[in-house]
Write a structure and sequence with these properties.
This protein is an alpha+beta fold. It has 2 domains: about 5-125 and about 265-285, no CATH class; about 130-235, Roll (Chitinase A, domain 3), CATH 3.10.50. Helix content is about 55%, strand content about 15%. A 4-stranded antiparallel beta sheet has the order 3-2-5-4. Strands 1-6 form a two-stranded antiparallel ribbon. The radius of gyration is 31 Å and the shape is elongated.
């Protein structure tokens, strides 16, 4: 097998999928225990000691370590007896927890795979529409408080005429915590400050002159658009860390789906009840 094949991420995921199912069996009895035997291995004792040391910033004493082992045995005994009694069945919380652990196991395996630059570049090329630099705006604004002014819009329009006639912008408008000038702000950032839709309304305004009024979550604004940069495709080197995160998330989803389909094939699924939408009578209840 050549080195190129060994570096192929898909081969790693095939191996990871096989390892996932093997680990499922191993984790059921991590210390080699079976039946009614509980065996505490040295690795288990070392793990208990390490967890204690991380929490207390010191190693446990012999008595403390014995207490940790005793508590582990207690938990294992009660866990096994609970399983024998079927207490794990029909318990929504336990079912969700076990499902989460299975999914986290698959995700950890996916995170361990290094896709390599070429695989990431292929993923980036297939999903370029997901990697766009957002539109950015630089603008000045003059605020008119709708709570103070009964006709903030009319006042703003009158002030706009004064501005276009040469009046100083510093002498117009109401004071607020909003800045008078915003430089190279993304559309998302602008909407978080001024309210949803504000950036879209700004993009409709002409550049290089005062315009408005424009309504925000606070009141009315006169706006001077200095620069507007529309959103544009990103270069791979600019977003490589994000591409890696997205690639891994996609691989995790794929691995989880393959895991599920493989495990599901072991079962015969029978749906005995009728699946239907709620009737109008039920919906009213």
């Amino acid at each position: 097998m050549n080195n190129r094949l060994l570096r192929e991420p898909l081969l790693h995921f095939a191996a990871a999928g096989a390892l996932l199912f093997a680990l499922s069996a191993i984790f059921q009895h991590g210390d080699g225990s079976s039946g009614d035997e509980i065996r505490i291995s040295q690795s288990r004792i070392d793990h208990l000691a390490a967890v204690f040391a991380r929490g207390w910033q010191r190693p446990p004493t012999a008595a403390e370590l014995q207490g940790l082992v005793d508590d582990y045995v207690r938990g294992e005994v009660l866990y096994r007896e609970a399983i024998k009694l079927g207490l794990d069945r029909d318990d929504t919380v336990i079912r969700r927890r076990l499902r989460l652990k299975m999914e986290l196991l698959a995700e950890d395996l996916a995170d361990a795979v290094d896709p390599g630059k070429q695989a990431l570049q292929r993923y980036f090329a297939d999903h370029r529409q997901d990697y766009l630099h957002p539109a950015r705006l630089s603008f000045r604004q003059i605020y008119f408080n709708s709570d103070r002014r009964g006709a903030a819009g009319a006042n703003a329009r009158a002030a706009l005429a004064r501005l276009r006639g040469g009046d100083n912008a510093a002498d117009i408008g109401d004071s607020s915590a909003l800045r008078q000038r915003y430089t190279d702000e993304s559309a998302g950032r602008i909407d978080r400050v001024f309210g949803d839709g504000f950036s879209a309304r700004l993009r409709e305004l002409p550049r290089g002159r005062w315009s408005g009024p424009v309504r925000s979550a606070y009141g009315q604004h006169l706006v001077y658009i200095e620069t507007f940069t529309p959103r544009r495709p990103a270069e791979f080197t600019d977003v490589q860390p994000q591409v890696l995160r997205d690639w891994r998330q996609q691989q995790q989803k794929d691995l989880l789906q393959r895991q599920y389909l493989t495990l599901r094939a072991k079962y015969h699924i029978h749906v005995d009840g009728e699946i239907r939408g709620a009737t109008s009578e039920v919906a009213r209840q």
